[in-house]
Amino acid sequence: MAAPIDLELKKAFTELQAKMIDRQQKVKLADLQIDQLIRLQKHAKLTLSEITALPDSTRVYEGVGRMFILQSKEEISNQLTDKQKTADEKIKELEQKKSYLERSVKEAEDNIREMLLSRRAQ
């Protein structure tokens, strides 16, 4: 009679373990995306600070693929500001997603511990 219980326990344990590993990978992916967005945000901020230091009569070009398009200084500044805002919003979303996934990993770990402790108690 112990064999069916062991098989059920083993099946539940492997399912929880797979779920936990999947969530941990998603947390790492969210971390990588957050790091990438932070770099993008810093790049936009530095570029914006350099552009604002230029005189108004300076010709400013935007790189598009393999060509450059003449843009006004104001348009490029607006684009860089928008990039920063968009990156900030995405970072907030990813941090919320990451915290949810971390809680989920913690719950899966707790469930695994409970299963092992209940098995030892029997």
First and last CA, distance? 13 Å
User: What is the number of E strands?
Assistant: 2
- Which structural class is indicated by helix and strand composition? mainly alpha
Seen as an oligomer or otherwise, the chain set is single chain
Gyration radius (Cα, Å) is 25 Å
Please give the order of strands in the largest beta sheet: 1-2
Biggest sheet details: 2 strands, antiparallel
Strand content: 5-15%
Order of helices and strands: HEEH
Q: Which topology does CATH recognise?
A: Helix Hairpins
Task: Write a brief structural summary.
The chain is mainly alpha-helical and 122 residues long. Helices cover 83% and strands 8% of the residues. It has one domain (2-121): Helix Hairpins, CATH 1.10.287.370.
Describe the structure.
It holds the Pfam family Prefoldin_2. The protein has 122 residues and is mainly alpha-helical. The chain has a single domain, classed as Helix Hairpins (Orthogonal Bundle). Helix content is 83%, strand content 8%. The chain is built from two helices and two strands; from the N terminus they run H-E-E-H. The chain has a two-stranded antiparallel sheet. Helix 1 (2-53) packs antiparallel against helix 2. The longest helix is centred in the first third of the chain and has 52 residues, at 2-53. It is rod-shaped. The two termini are 13 Å apart.
